[in-house]
């Protein structure tokens, strides 16, 4: 694996993307409610916006958002160190947003189950063709290639992609539509742009960054008042298919991620510091253990609606964690202590918000959802920092790390490679016939996800990446 990367952040991103894939392929209607989005309970999976709760499925998207926020200072910081002109920097930010927006729209037009609820041969081939087009458009091409060679590959990719969009046909008789897109990627596209701008405008000004969150909080509360100018503005957009103001609510997750990312930069700088700290191995182990326990307690307690007990248990665990980290004698230990403080702050803030808006919900998302998931994501990042960087156990999480370094391929690979191959060969029918039971279906989904992780890992090791 290449040196100098934030492996803990890669692992967090990889965990989020693989769990996101897994959540989309587990059997529907037949598993307990905690195996699905809290607002889409079995057996009907009918959306119920009044149903509060938090499942592991609800956690994976904000975990990925948090990782995106944490990556912003690392990525843009490297570009700033190159003394690039500001217009080049902003052009790059807008270009990334546009490439993600196209990714969202194109992907939704070549997904097999969107094209046909019961995919057959041609549908599977179209899905595979979509993967090929994306491969040509987004793969990072070798620098050693000539300009004409790289230009030819890109032209072929874009041409093939537009041809597939032109030929797209859906069960309702419609074809290409700008409004047909992957909402998760559309949100990520917006956050890639606005998160980057927030960091650029508030570098080394933490209070200003927190002030942005305060203004955003006021805007959201005021926009809920029907008839107000903010309500009108909040729900108006000149390009609603790609941007709506209410997507900015996810800055409540991106900004905590940005703050964590700045500490990650410091962490990377002190990893090889010869100054030894005072923390023992059991103390570091306790940090990992408590971090994981906090995630499990919140998922169980909030989904079962034991809100007060969850609050008490989390505060107790956070207090125990603070006793573990409060005495720091090296720069690395001070960074861990600071991150624990921020994680505790976001988590407790979210738990205090929990009774507001009828309890924690992903949809429609509540303030408790933003802050609880930010805190839990940061605790998971801290756990990865200890395991991967302090204990140097990168091999334990290699597939997570390498999937996190190649998230776009991981996101597409299941529906546009693995499922089409299984469908064309007929293996899907055979595998489903021997795994008909609900939990056998979960095992099947887990094996598919591990197969995806292995495939993405192979591409990553060979230097094949999709980039925006």
Care to describe what's here?
- The protein is mainly alpha-helical and 468 residues long.
- It has one domain.
- The chain is 69% helix and 0% strand.
- It contains 18 helices and no strands.
- Helix 1 packs antiparallel against helix 2, helix 1 packs parallel to helix 16 (407-425) and helix 1 (7-25) packs antiparallel against helix 18 (438-461).
- The longest helix has 26 residues, at 56-81.
- It is globular.
- 41% of the residues are buried.
Which features characterize this protein?
single chain; 468 residues; mainly alpha; globular
Task: State the helical fraction.
Answer: 55-70%
SS strand fraction: under 5%
Please give the largest β-sheet: none
Tally of alpha and pi helices: 18
Radius of gyration: 22 Å
Give a count of the beta strands, DSSP E runs of length 2 or more. 0
Counting helices, strands and paired strands, the structural category is mainly alpha
What form results from the Cα inertia axes? globular
In round numbers, the mean pLDDT is 95
Give the number of domains. 1
Could you spell the SSE succession in H and E letters?
HHHHHHHHHHHHHHHHHH
Could you give the distance between the termini? 21 Å
């Amino acid at each position: 694996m290449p040196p100098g990367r934030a492996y803990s952040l890669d692992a967090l991103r990889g965990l989020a993307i693989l769990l996101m894939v897994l959540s989309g392929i587990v059997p529907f209607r037949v598993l307990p409610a905690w195996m699905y989005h809290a607002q889409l309970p079995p057996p009907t999976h009918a959306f119920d916006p009044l149903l509060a709760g938090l499942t592991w499925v609800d956690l994976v998207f904000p975990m990925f958002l948090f990782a995106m926020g944490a990556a912003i200072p690392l990525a843009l910081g490297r570009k700033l160190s190159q003394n690039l002109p500001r217009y080049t920097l902003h052009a790059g930010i807008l270009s990334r947003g546009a490439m993600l927006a196209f990714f969202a729209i194109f992907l939704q037009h070549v997904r097999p189950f969107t094209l046909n609820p019961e995919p057959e041969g041609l549908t599977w081939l179209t899905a595979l063709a979509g993967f090929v087009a994306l491969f040509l458009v987004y793969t990072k091409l070798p620098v050693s290639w000539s300009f004409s060679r790289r230009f030819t590959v890109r032209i072929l990719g874009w041409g093939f992609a537009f041809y597939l969009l032109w030929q797209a046909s859906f069960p309702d008789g419609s074809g290409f539509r700008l409004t047909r897109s992957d909402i998760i990627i559309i949100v990520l596209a917006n956050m890639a742009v606005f998160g980057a701008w927030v960091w650029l405008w508030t570098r080394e000004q933490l209070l200003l960054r927190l002030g942005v969150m305060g203004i955003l909080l006021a805007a959201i509360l005021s926009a809920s008042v029907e008839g107000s100018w903010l309500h009108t503005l909040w729900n108006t957009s000149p390009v609603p298919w790609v941007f709506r103001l209410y997507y900015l609510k996810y800055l409540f997750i991106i900004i905590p991620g940005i703050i964590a990312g700045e500490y990650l930069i410091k962490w990377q700088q002190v990893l090889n510091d010869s100054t030894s700290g005072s923390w023992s191995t059991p103390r570091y182990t306790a940090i990992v253990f408590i971090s994981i326990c906090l995630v499990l307690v919140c998922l169980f307690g909030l989904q079962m609606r034991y809100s007060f007990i969850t609050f008490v248990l989390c505060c107790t665990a956070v207090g125990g964690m603070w006793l573990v980290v409060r005495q720091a004698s090296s720069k690395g230990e001070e960074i861990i202590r600071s991150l624990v403080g921020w994680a505790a702050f976001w988590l407790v803030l979210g738990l205090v918000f929990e009774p507001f808006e009828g309890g924690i919900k992903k949809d429609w998302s509540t303030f408790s959802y933003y802050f609880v998931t930010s805190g839990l994501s940061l605790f998971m990042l801290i756990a990865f920092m200890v395991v991967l960087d302090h204990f140097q156990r990168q091999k334990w999480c290699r597939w997570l790390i390498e999937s996190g370094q190649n998230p776009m391929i991981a996101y597409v690979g299941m529906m546009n490679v693995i499922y089409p191959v299984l469908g064309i060969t007929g293996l899907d029918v055979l595998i489903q016939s021997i795994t008909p039971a609900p939990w056998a279906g979960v095992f099947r989904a887990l094996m598919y996800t591990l197969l995806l992780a292995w495939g993405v890992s192979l591409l990553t090791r060979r230097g094949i990446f999709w980039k925006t």
